[in-house]
Each structure stands twice: as structure tokens, then as C-alpha cells.
Structures
1.
Amino acid sequence: MNAKSADDIRGLEFDWLASDADGNVALFSTAGGGYVPGEFLRDTDAHDRAVDSISGMRARTRALFAPRLAPGLPNTWLTMAERGVFAFDSDSFGGPYRLVAAPEAPVRASELPEAAAAVVGGLILEHLRFAELKEITAGDLTRRPPGAPEGALVELYADFNNIAADGSLPLHCVGSVASIASLGQELREGKEVWLTDGELWARARLSRAGDGAWYARPGFPITSSKSGGR
């Protein structure tokens, strides 16, 4: 297992995998800036092995569309689509993931090699359907946990490893910056939000430093229960 923080992967290309409400599978390429869930950061090596295992499968369908690359360059997105996997790509500025390749016949998570099936089975985006989406934002990936009041709180990505000695939590890692950007003008000083790394959750109030940087101060215990801490 090779755990990393969001700051560890900033500026570097990483690929991670997830499944959706329909059991379809997608590859997400960060391009050095895309939001990543905590499940991926806890074991990036497992996702690398999973991607390799899918690449090693025989092509099972055709790609409806995929980027064209120069001859000799590996086209991971095309390879994934030909094996039934959707492919989304972000950008170095933390923009949304945009659909770049899609399969004619999607593969189900249960049909993947064991290494890949285990990874996507542990990262299920139950509120999304890849076949219906052209774009996925950080806000989509950190949507309100089940049980939280409808419309009451927005969610921000947070790396809980960055909590300072005074209990404040800087929101300057790549995932936090991306989710803040996706919310636009919804944030204000003193606003209560959900903080999450994709598995842990905490309610917190926001504050802003003189240089414009956002901070949060969790007001409830951090919990692995999505409906906890309310």
C-alpha cells in the first residue's frame, strides 16, 4: 500500500478508477490538477495495478470516440474504451473531469480482473451515471452525504492530515482548491460546510486569511460515518 496526500500528487499525472450507480466503470486522469478521492490516495499503487490489469484484457468493444494521439504514443483512453471503460480527463488547473472516450458496450465491474474489480468495488460513486455525463466536477465527487439536510451544507474536499496544532485546517491542497473553485461564490466567512476526503466527514466553519486563503475549523468530531457528526 502506498498512501499519498493530495499535495504529493499535485502537478503529476495519476489515473484512478471508480464504478457508478449502474455498475459501469470509469478511468479518471488527473492531468496534475484534478480532484482525487481519499480512497485513491490511501493506495495509489492498487489503482496502478488495476489500470494495468484492464489494459491487459483483450479488446471487447469499440470506442464511440477517443482522442487521436501521434503514432507510437500510448493511448490509455482508447485502450480503456475498447475494454468497456469510460475515460474522463481533468487539467492542471483543477478543472472538472471531461469525458474524452466512451465504449459502445460498457463493461460491468464484476467482469473485470480481480485486481480491478476490488478497486472499483471500493470506490463506488452511487449518485453518478457515467453514461449520462459529459463532465464531472469536484462538487459532484463530494456530493452531500446521505442523511444530511437537503441544500443545507455544501461539501469541500479536505486533507485531514493537514490539521494544525490549533485545530484549524488549511484548505490549500489541490483537492480543496478544486472544490472551492467549483462552488464559485457560495462560500463566505463563517459559513458552515461539510469537509470530506471521500470517506471521513466533519462539519466545520470557514475563515479566510488576509492573503485570501481559506481555512476551516471542524466543530464536530471527524467520523467515518457519512451521517455522523450532525
2.
Amino acid sequence: MTDTTMSKDENLVLGVDPGTAITGYGLVWGEGDNLRLVDYGAITTSSDESLPQRLQEIYRQLTTLIQERQPAAAAVEKLFFSRNVRTALSVGQARGVALLAMANAEIAIHEYTPLEVKQAVVGYGRATKEQVQEMVKMLLGLDSVPQPDDAADAIAVAICHIHSARMKGLIKSSKPKAQSSNAEET
């Protein structure tokens, strides 16, 4: 039985790479420059099942994962236009189910374009999939690239959020505080 009274870990981010056949996930803990891979894997569904059954399975497993691990935030890639409309629609449906699971758990949801993920992880927005995966391995001090690829991609999205949130925090803390003016002072 899962303890749902457990508090959220403010430094734990769930990254999700949605797909109808395979939805990758990665849980990354991050504070400052320190990153640690907590868990990763893939939710797979059978093509023998109907689309609603497959989406329901993705939702169930993501909901369970969120309840068990209690991430404070979740990150998912924004959809980009694909040449294959059927694939884009399928990914969009799986993405919608993932967003619903996150929203129902009341965790902060952040979305990033593939270019933003590559920029945050590799430092180059046009990096190849292999370069992103190799940087995931290096940043987390792993012996090999996490498998399947969908899980590695999900981990990259989580790392992107951790880096982006850190940069936003640095920018926010470096801005001078606006001083309140009192028009009545003379």
C-alpha cells in the first residue's frame, strides 16, 4: 500500500516522454549543480489493446508513480509538428493523459520544446539524439545510457527543467528589488 501522506520532495522532478506504445519516465533529483537519477523506466502498452485501454494504462501507471515518488514538479516536451499526422495525434493523446495525471496530482507542470531540452542538456539546440543521451549519462555519472531511449529522453526533459528552474532562480535573485515610493514624502 502506498503512503499518500508523504510530502513532496521539492528537488525531485518527473520527466515524461509520452507515446502510446512506450511512455518513458525519469525521476531526477537536483539541487544546484548536483543531479542524481532516482528512477527511470518505460510504460509499455500492447498494440492488441484498444486506444482507450492503452491510454488508461498510461494514466494508471503514471498516477501510481507520482503517488509513490511524490515529485514536486513534472516536465514534458511540447508537441512539435510531425510529417506523420497519425504519430503526432497518438503522441498528443498520450501527452494529454500524462498531463492529466500530473494535474490531478497537483504538481507543477512545465513544458519545453525539443530545442530547449537540447540546449539545456547539451548546450546546443541542434544536438543529435545520441549527443543528448550521452550528456544524460555524463551529467548523472552513469556507466551507460539509460534504456529504452524513451526513458533517456524523459530524463533529459527532467534535467532541462532542473537547469531552467535554476537559471530562472538566479535571474530572479539578481534583479534589484523595486523600491516602493511614497508620494506623500516631502
3.
Amino acid sequence: MGDSHQTNTAADSTVQIQSANDALLERVEEQITLDTFDPSDLQTLQQLVEGLGDPRGLIRLRFAETLGEIGEPATPLLTEALAHHSNVVLRRAAAKTLTIIGDPSAVPTLLHAFLTDGDTVVRSSSAGALARTGEAAVPALLEILASSEQSEDIKGHAAWALAFIGSEAAEHLYKALNSDSIDVRCAVIGRSPMLPRNNPTKNLAAS
């Protein structure tokens, strides 16, 4: 009897949270459409970031797209969530939302998540977000390639990010041709504008 009551209570709580998330999305999407949304409203921004932890994939995607439309005002709360939130689903979605925004100020947090987060999806999504920030991420990515302490998996993601950045990284890559690190030189030589540009935001709803 007790277990059944607890199960019902948890289910009711989940329904309430989902209903609140649905209402929040509807309200903010309408405000964005009417150009009345206040990007300095930190309480609403925080609620939107928490919505990235919704158990419904399509709803997470809507939250990510909404935050993407809001853009850089959401970056500090997204980087805070990526760095410290206990919900791995939310950290994954935060990294992918930062990919949509492409704010260079997120590079330090994205780099830390890429190198240290215990979840492989968070790490790969952070690499995707680094790629979208463009030139701002290039020096750190080259340092990763030159490091003897990083795994081949991490170096592979860093090389992919450099390839995605493409022409924005050209000046840095040209200088890196003279690097003492063979990994750096190989990544530079192997970088080609013909490499496929996979979309780093793909599969947000499924993660």
C-alpha cells in the first residue's frame, strides 16, 4: 500500500513538472514571437535551463531551440549547468544548446567538460560546441593535440573540431605546421575544407 502511494505521488509530481514546463515554453515562445521577452529575466532563464532536464526528448529540443533563440544572455546559466548540474541529461542538453548559441565566452567551461566530464555524450557534445565557437576554441584544441597526457579519443574529437572550424582556424593552423608535436602537424595536414561538416546539434532529442 505504501509503495503504491509513493509511486502515485511520484507520477503526480512528474505530471506537474511536465505541465509546468509545457506552460513555460508556451509563454516564452509567445513572448519571443511578440518581441516582448526580457533576456535579463534570470528567473525565467533559469527555469528554461532546468527544462533541459525534461524526460521528453522533443520537449528538451524545444527548450534548447528556445534558449538558442534567446542566445548569449543564456550562456552563463548554461555553462553553470554544464559545469555543476547533477542531472547528466541536463548537462548533455546544456552542451548541445551551447552548440546552437556558439558563444566564445563558453569556451573555458566547454573545454573543462570536454576533458573531464564522466559522461561520453557530454564530452562529445562539448567538443561539438567548441567547434561551433570558431576561432576562439582553436588555441585550446591545438594544445590538446600537442599534449602527451590526452587520450586518442580526446585528440580525435579535437582534430574533428578543428576540421569543422575550417577557414576560421587557418592562421593558427598555418603556424601549427611548425609544431614539435606530430599529432598537431598530422591534424593540420589532414584538415581539409572537403571534410564532412556533421551537425553537432544532431540527436538532441534522443540524448
4.
Amino acid sequence: MHLSPRAEGYTRVARAVVASILVLALTRFGPSFHSLGPHGGLFGRLLYLTLLTAGLPAVAVLYKTTLRPAGCGLGAGDSLRYQKWIVSAAVLAVGGGFVASRFQGMRDYYPIYRAVLDHPMLWVPSTVAFSAYGLAWEGMFRGALLLGTQDVVGKSGALILQTLLFAAGHWDKPPLELLLSVPAGLFFGVVALKTKSILPGFLIHATLSLSVNLFCAYG
């Protein structure tokens, strides 16, 4: 059955929301990889979550629609136009990571992969794995839910939509992080709207995450 452009748009929004909620549910209640051992279990779970988070929302918004991957921020967009601003924000993220690491709740939670404290060489593969998962997160929230729906529900509506689900994805994080997930979601959303790409937000977010982990471990 052929849908009108308006109906196709709202169907795409509904699929994006359902796919994202399903991803969050499967993240919480999905399979365990403990049988792979302490290290294999972590990397196996991260691989599963990365493929799930990157794939399901992307299929939801791109399947049988006129929307192209670039429309979901899967490209450089206007990033070069804002490169100085992006680098400045990444530098500030390091300072933000230091401040966040001063809170005991954050220090009790991070670094997530505690094995790095006894085996520093594991920082490299674990950072790569978590970064890949982080890129998938940006693809779901700022790509599928924000850039992939703004033409239907408007920029403000899409911004609020992805922020609410982004905050829901932090429900099991430390109280400070959960509280800040709302302004952070709005901030990363504005970055994506300005640059028409998920990559700048990913760079800033990854810098913040790595800084928090390092400062909590050694700061």
C-alpha cells in the first residue's frame, strides 16, 4: 500500500521511537555473555549492544523511505564549518570530566571496566569498544530520533523526543549523570542540528566519557 508523504513521515517517527525503546529494553534485559569470561563477556556484550543500537534504529528510519543516511547525520555534514567550536567544546569536556569525577557516586561507578586498574594495557581495547558503542548511541539518539524525524515533528519536537529517550537510557547511571543527561541530551541535539552530523557530538561525548573514566581511575 502506498502511503502519502505525511503518513510515511509519521510511520517513520513511530518506527524510530519503537526501535529505540526496544534497544533500551534489550540493553537492560538482553542476553548475558558471562560464559565468555570476565574480559570476553564485556567485549561480547559491547559488540552485541553496538550492532543492536546501530542497526535497529537505522533500519527503522531508512526502510522504505525517501530519507537517506546523510539525512540522519551519517556523514560530515557542516562539521568543518564549526570545527573550532567543536574542538573548544571537546577541550571543555575534559574539564567537565574532571569536575564530575570529584563526586563519590561517579567514582564508585567509573571506570566501568574495573580490570583496567590492574591491567592498564586494557585501556586501549576497552576504549575502542566503548567508543564504537558510543558512536552507535549517537546514531540512535541524534541520528535516527533527531535528524531522522525533524522533518516530520519539527526541530523542537525531535529535540525533546530524543532528549527524553536519551535520559531514559541513563536511568541506571549515578544520580549526577542521570540529572545531567537532560541538559546533555539537549546540548548534543543542538550540536547535531547545527552541524547536520552525529560526528561532532560523538567526539565531544567520547572525550567527556574517557575523561571521566581516567579521572575516576587516577585523579
